[in-house]
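Task: fold both queries, return tokens.
Query 1:
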Amino acid sequence: MLREKLSNYNLILASGSPRRQHFFKELDVPFTIVIKEVNEIYPDHLKGVQITDYLADLKSKRFNNLQTNDLLITSDTIVWFEEKAIGKPINKNDAFNMLKKMSGKEHDVYTSVSIKGKTFQKIFNDKTSVEFEEFTNEEINYYLTKFAPFEKAGSYGIQDWIGLIGVKKITGSYFNVMGLPVHKLYKELLKIAQ
């Protein structure tokens, strides 16, 4: 359905995330992947969703030669826990400490998406709250050894083993936690296509 409505547009996904690429395939829209490296540094005063809004916009600024029918999609996701952004771990020990701190507690996941054309830009976001069960050290070590989630914010993927055994409660979009609020992206693309 969306494929036909967007047939006059050239969708560009600026993301190396296999999950985001998979979502675009599942939406059944033609797209190309173009990745430009960005230093994901943001001002210290930003909090929560302000960070992801800023970074989604920052990633879009690397593309300054958009054509009339181009739609550039950039996105950013963070885990927000105890008033701090939890990024990707630097090593296994860091990953262990992240999961241990979040064990038995609730955190938020924010994702922001930028849709940018030659003459416009729309940035929107989504928030999902995730509550973890208490993890044993053995469970955390098993997960880190078997699944090596070191490229994921907060050191976990909700779709992985740890999500299966450890998510006590989720409020909001599951897919947002995976890195893209697909339901909101779909609606925004429909608006543009009209």
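Query 1 returned. Query 2:
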Amino acid sequence: MNESSELRIESGWRPGVIGRITEMHARYYALDHAFGSDFEVKVAEGLAAFVPRLAHARNGLWCAWIGARLLGSIVIDGQDQDDGAAHLRYFIVDDGTRGRGVGRILLRAALRFVDEQGFERTRLWTFEGLNAARRLYEQQGFQLVRSWRGDQWGREVTEQVFERAKSP
């Protein structure tokens, strides 16, 4: 990160965020986890379908910026879980920015929104081996509730669901 510019967190869509968020996901998961084009397409399609729903009060998108450079993102989808849980999605931080607290700031912004909206719980899907992200989730009260072997991302991994109960 360029120390002469200040990090800012902005909510909502801006031109280019769908492409940049997709790119960050595709690069990271291809290089570090051998996910291919099927994964990139799923991210792009899912994010493109979500963005028009930002007008709904229970949905949110937060991006971390320095100047005009998007460094990370996180989404709360408050409409896609049948039981009314908040769904944490599209959480990613740029490769050159990891380990500098940007992910923690984004996660806290999203969870503050969840708590303000009064969701009973927050749910996220991930897979085994993303240890830094798991530590962040657990520090914020998430617990592993289910795991299984699956290949929805283009190769077999141990998929996981984490949940966080409503904050007191």
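Both queries returned. Flag for query 2: The mean pLDDT is 91.
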